[in-house]
Amino acid sequence: MSPSAVEDYVALTVSAEAPAEFPDINIPEMVAWYVTPAAARPVAIDVVSAEYGFPQLTGHWPVAHLEEKSVMLVRVGSIGGAAAHALASYGVGRIVLVDPDRLLSHNVVRHVSSVKHVGRLKVDAVKQELAEAWPATHVDALPVDVIAPAHLIRPRLRDVGVVLCTADGVAARRVVSHLARRARTDAVLACVLQDGAVGEIIRLRPWADHGCLTCRREALVARGAVDPEPALDLGYGTGTAHRPMTAVGGDLHLVGQMAAKAAVATVLERKGHSDQKLPGEHAIFGLRPTLGWTPPFDLNRNGDIRWLPHSPPRPGCPTCEEP
């Protein structure tokens, strides 16, 4: 086709022999050209590999082990939304999103979903985003609360590798702790404490010498620490005039990403990947540390991370004792 015959267009030339014939000047096999009636100039071209996506990481990351695994994510708020994207970016094959809430306008400043999703169920908004960004991950959206319809959650827990709870309410966290224990499923709980100044991740293993969430909290209190659990029922922006909730999106997303890392590490450690072993079962890290909290929450530097071991079950615990 003559350049003068039409207006501007893009042409593609292919020469399989060129790279071998001219090895010293690195001629590519395929070149794109922007052609005008006056001239033709080369333009950048990207050839999509047949191994596009996670197959590109095979041999460097346990792709096969993760693509067959499922993770249940309870609550898809500011922390949970970021965790969902992180789980997909690790290559988790299936994610079950559990959250009855809709995205409201005041959520957008902290949420991974944009204002175009306001009014939609959070599980639907995040499901659509994951389908666009991470099509290899299958997503189930359950717009239900984890507390009342436990009969819907309980059987699904037996089919997932780990349940990740990012709820900021006491009841939901305790229900997940209880149901996961009874299903013999690992659980990871993530939240922010101290009005968003401290991030926390707790891993609960369904093992005889590992206590549930309530046992963990009571063990801390017995050692002289405060129990931060009740304050989790305060929503963002509803703190007192002297201690408002000032967590920002970036910090909440960081907590979600670290929680996803803990969940993926838990799955991979069970598959024999020793390089994924966590330093402990309870992580506390500084986002905006303030003075005055009792150990182990007394972090005084932004970015400090403190790992704690597990606590044993309390005698008579209704969650930890076998029914």
TrEMBL record:
InterPro entries: ThiF/MoeB/HesA (IPR045886), ThiF_NAD_FAD-bd (IPR000594), Ubiquitin-activating_enz (IPR035985)
Gene3D superfamilies the record matches: NAD(P)-binding Rossmann-like Domain
Species per Swiss-Prot/TrEMBL record: Saccharothrix mutabilis subsp. mutabilis
Domain THIF-type NAD/FAD binding fold stretches: 64-268
Domain of life of the source: Bacteria
Protein name, UniProt field: THIF-type NAD/FAD binding fold domain-containing protein
